[in-house]
Amino acid sequence: MLNPNPSGHPGQRIEDTIMGILEENPNHAENLLQKIQESQIHHLEDSQIYSAILKVLTSLDICENESESIWKEIVENKNKLSHCMGRQVGFSVALIDYFTNINPKIKNPKIIDMKLFADTEKLILVDELTRLYNRRHFETALVREFKQSTRYNQNLTLLIIDIDDFKKINDTYGHTTGDEILTKVAKQITSCLRMEDTACRIGGEEFAVIFPQTNEEQAMIASEKLLEACRTIQLSGKSVTLSGGIVSYPEKVKTCEDMYDLADRALYTAKYSGKNQIVAYSNEKRSSLRFDANLELLFIMPDKTLKTISKNISVTGIAFDTEDDITLNESFDVKLRESDSHQEINAKIKVIRKEEVGVHKYLMGAEFLELSAEDQTKLSDLYTLHRYKSKMSTSVV
């Protein structure tokens, strides 16, 4: 792991480091590699650094296995031009000459101040409210870190977090207060991260944190600390809470494309199984939390309504017994009723498991196809209620 560097900030892009060095000393671009290595902010191979430098200077995507040789050719071109001119030629001039005449990758170069270009680029990559990176940068950073992890056989963990009941905060206190909460959460997230971690606001009240060189256990500890820090944010005397889901490479995921989806699935489980917690994605068949619940289950059909009792339920589906021979893969509109709380949940389900356990008796399993945000909240409340009942019953002697 890297040691934090006070001159940088968590998740600082190598492009930002390069820009900072060039602003301090714009006339010695050829020394950038040495300066970046001395900063100890980025733990990258020379080829990766050269590729990033060329990207900043030219906006060209030069592959890593060519970047170092191209850099040396540009330095050599600078020396040749200086010799021919009888005076020192700037690195930028040699760079333009190289990419327009020697290795013509740029047809019509346009000169623009690099800081002006970088400031414009930041407007595209940084969330204006929280000053965290936005979803556009998140997607690029995740691909980059995943490539790095696969190339060097390193761990990588993605955390997706969401502020609990944020819509209620906006509805109750107004969007100005909601924005203040978002800003405070972003600051707490940043305060908990290492230099190599990347935090992004990826939409609404949802944030993402990329943990390089971090396995699931380490990320879980870091994520819990992050949630604990956010609980110090108070609103009307109550703590602001977050829910999160994590997934780790190579423990639970094999492709970059799946990382966000699986972390988001774990977030869904955390959200609708009590909130205010971190859940690690599980690739087991039944990865969502289940609880025993004898709820009245009504199947709404065009010509009749079937009634039965559920056996258990999770945020993704429900199991129940029935004497009706329901067709596998058939979809139904249903109502779930809880006697104690008088909660009623409307949903659309699809039967995905069917087992005959006796004469005209079947054990069925169904997944939720449609469940509104309001009904998801009711389901979360039911889970919390039944978990509380379970704890109470086990404590009675």
Automatic annotation (TrEMBL):
PROSITE patterns: GGDEF. GO terms for cellular component: plasma membrane. Pfam families: GGDEF, PilZ. Its EC number is 2.7.7.65. It comes from the Bacteria. GO terms for biological process: cell adhesion involved in single-species biofilm formation; negative regulation of bacterial-type flagellum-dependent cell motility. It comes from Leptospira wolbachii serovar Codice str. CDC. Residues 154-283 form the GGDEF domain. This is diguanylate cyclase. SUPFAM superfamilies: Nucleotide cyclase, PilZ domain-like. CDD domains: GGDEF. It is an enzyme of class 2 (transferase). It catalyses: 2 GTP = 3',3'-c-di-GMP + 2 diphosphate. GO terms for molecular function: cyclic-di-GMP binding; diguanylate cyclase activity.
